[in-house]
Write a structure and sequence with these properties.
Length: 134
């Protein structure tokens, strides 16, 4: 699957965003090694802290359905009808991705018209992970 196709799926996922408090809508499309794509959106809460980001929604959907290995994620976000230029994943989502993804896992940011791919190693350098516990 191309980065552009994954970006377009993230735009679709963003339409389900439940974000009445921030009005910032985020969508994510996570590509598993099986070829299956898991969509996620941010899901906010009146108590604020239970809010779940789009990226984690996608990861938790995938893992709960039995998939634990991933190739790439596309992320789109913004307050308007269309996604804004760039929405980088928050630190908690980077750490959750690091639990299941390799250093060369691709993180595609931007919009379908203007996007750029980064590796997990670029966005979460010098990270703490399962190898530190062995
Ligand atoms: N949000 C995400 O879903 N993913 C990100 O990468 C950044 C932030 C959500 C959380 C919250 O619902 C809203 O965007 C504003 O922070």
């Amino acid at each position: 699957m191309s980065d552009l196709e994954l970006m377009k799926l993230a735009v679709e996922a963003r339409k389900a965003s439940y974000s009445p408090y921030s009005n910032f809508k985020v969508g994510a499309a996570l590509l598993g090694k099986s070829g299956k794509v898991y969509l996620g959106c941010n899901v906010e809460n009146a108590a604020y802290t239970p809010t779940n980001c789009a990226e984690r929604t996608a990861v938790f959907k995938a893992v709960s359905e039995g998939e634990r290995e991933f190739l790439a994620i596309a992320i789109v976000g913004g307050s308007g009808e269309e996604p804004a230029d760039f929405c980088a994943p928050c630190g908690i989502c980077r750490q959750v991705l690091a639990e299941f993804c390799e250093q060369d896992f691709r993180i595609v940011l931007g919009t379908p018209n203007n996007f750029k791919a980064y590796t997990l190693a670029e966005l979460l350098p010098f990270s703490f992970g399962k190898n530190d516990l062995e």
